[in-house]
Amino acid sequence: MNSSASTTTASDRSRQGVLLGLTAYTLWGAFPVFFKALAGAAPLEVVCHRIFWSAVFLTLLVALRHRLGTIRATLADRAMLLTLCGSTLLIAGNWLVFIYAVQIGEVLQSSLGYFITPLLSVLLGFIFLGERLSRWQQLSVLLALAGVLSLTVQYGRLPWIALFLAGSFGIYGLLRKIARVDALIGLTVETLLLAPLALAGMFWFAASGQAAFLNGSLRLDLLLPLSGVVTAIPLLCFIGAARRLRLATTGFLQYITPSLHFLLAVGLYHEPFSRGHLLSFLFIWAGLAVYSGEALWKSRP
After folding, report:
1. C-alpha span between 216 and 149 (Å, rounded)
2. Is residue 5 part of a domain?
């Protein structure tokens, strides 16, 4: 009876984890739709609002969970704080470039960037953490590199948006792994560190007459503060999923986000998708298939 109950509990936790993971990655995948709706506000103003309202929402959430002491302890740890300052700059830059990409119609590059990220993370682990690369992982990284080079040769310029999104998020993940602070507390500290600058930026936009917020658009007046909640909710779902699922499972679920970005870019926003794009994505997808296949093999019972 005890064994049966334990199996049922584990199964329930797994189902809950999959549901939470699907929710998190689907919401992240729908981000282009939300941030397209903020057209009319400058990308920097959007980021200022996203940071400030995220800080407000997350701080309230942490307070409700009676974890403000953890925030104070994190801020008092100099080594931890220095690492989080670095991760803060990276995530803010990532948000800014992503919003810029959405507004100028480069969602396809954001898709490419987030497809590359897992493979770049493997390479960063090898360079900075001394993690060994298997032959299959080496092949997956080389295929990703071939995809980037293919697109570069085709258009005569680097796909800088994709590379910046992948690089900033990959290094962000590396720093957060070094910091060893849980996702909720870490993101709360990061947004709190930037909140004064974000608030100053909001006042600057208002004083210079360039603010979209409270300037006659009810849509923007509602959506800009909502960007903080939109940022936090998928993160909380992700935390719940990560606690319930194996790493291999969350690894596969993460491809939902760039896949949705890809479908939105090509199917809804009709961004140009040439043979050069196709060849580049085929290299990336092949690299991901090799990487995922090995991960699945290693995680088998």
Report:
1. 46
2. no
68 occurs within a structural domain: yes
Tally of domains within the chain: 1
Q: Is 63 among the domain residues?
A: yes
Nearest alpha carbon to residue 285 among 168, 165, 146, 163: 146
Closest CA to 50 of 95, 114, 106: 95
Q: Is residue 292 part of a domain?
A: yes
pLDDT tens sequence for the chain (301 residues): 455 555 557 677 788 888 998 999 999 999 999 999 999 999 999 999 999 999 999 999 999 999 999 999 999 999 999 999 999 999 999 999 999 999 999 999 999 999 998 888 888 888 888 888 888 888 988 998 999 998 888 777 889 999 999 999 889 988 888 888 888 899 899 999 999 999 999 999 999 999 999 998 999 999 999 999 999 899 888 878 877 877 667 777 888 999 999 999 999 999 999 888 899 999 999 988 988 888 778 766 6
Question: 66 is in which domain, residue-wise?
Answer: 14-298
Strand (E) or helix (H) holding 129: none
